[in-house]
Known about the structure:
The complex is a heterodimer of chains A (127) and B (203).
Chain A: H1 3-14, E1 19-22, E2 26-29, H2 34-55, H3 62-87, H4 96-117
Antiparallel strand pairs in A: 1-2
Chain B: H1 12-50, H2 52-62, H3 65-89, H4 93-123, H5 138-168, H6 177-202
Helix pairs in contact in B: 1-5, 1-6, 3-4, 3-6, 4-5, 5-6
Amino acid sequence: MSEHHTEAHEEVHSHHSDTVTLPVVGTITVYGGLYTVIFGVLGVLTAIEVLLAELFKGVEGDVANTVRIVALFGIGVLKAVIVVWFYMHLRSDNPLFRVVLIMPLVIVLVSVLYLIGVPIGEGLGYR
Amino acid sequence: MAEVSIKSTAGHGDTAQHNSNQKLAMWLYLGSEVVIFAILIGGYALFRFNEPSIVKRLHGELGIALVTANTFLLLSSSWAMVMSLRAAEMKKRGEFLRWMWVVVGLGVVFLVGQYIEYSELAHLQITLGDVTAEYGGFGARFYAPTAFHGLHVLIGVLLGLHVIWLGNKGFYDDNPIGVELFGLYWHFVDVVWILLFTVIYLV
């Protein structure tokens, strides 16, 4: 049995426990353990996101608007990462899965940025 | 007389490898979905930055109460999904099935919420084509990612029912990999909505 499989196996069983140790808070027991704690975190982040969006909806100025957009994107991406890392078990599964997820995203982002950034009729010299 | 026992070479290790292979296959599929959704979301984002006034007006007309509720629904369904898998791994079939019903139920409610939202947009005459100059161009950029996502939720609901049907027959009692694979799909659908919610409704 590979070392990775043993680690993943232990990770699976640790996720069955209702007891979870958190930074600052310490050890708590809640039904569902870490999964329930993560759900709570996602709920709080969503509430913060919505409050941020609504309270600063009519903000004037490029700088203030940019900060608002970056903050909202940041929270959105953080939530997505949390779901992928904990609920989709990416933290304990084969590291290859991370590559499989991230690589297409990077390729698409680079491609889209190229299409946006390069003026029509230029680029690689094709007309 | 010497006893000869033939030990089977197939066992826990082979099952683990098979499970890992299946998970890789699912991740490869999700990787392809990342490409599609990234392009669709990118298309909307481009429109959003080029036509901020149209989007601002629409945000004012629609509000975000319904979609916020929908977001909490999908987050809850993601939690229910992981609880379902946890129960399946702990060989608690009844609990696993009950959580799966919660997942499917929340998925259905989410689709109802999307239908209500689309109805509100139809009242504003926002359609796929550029019918009104007031919201020109918004329709296609909005419906493409959200409807494609909605289709994934619908397929997820149907797959979830299939998982429940198989689970009821004891299919996942010994190896809940099928539940985990469905869970990967369902969580991915939730991740896409998290990003759609932020990009389309909040920004």
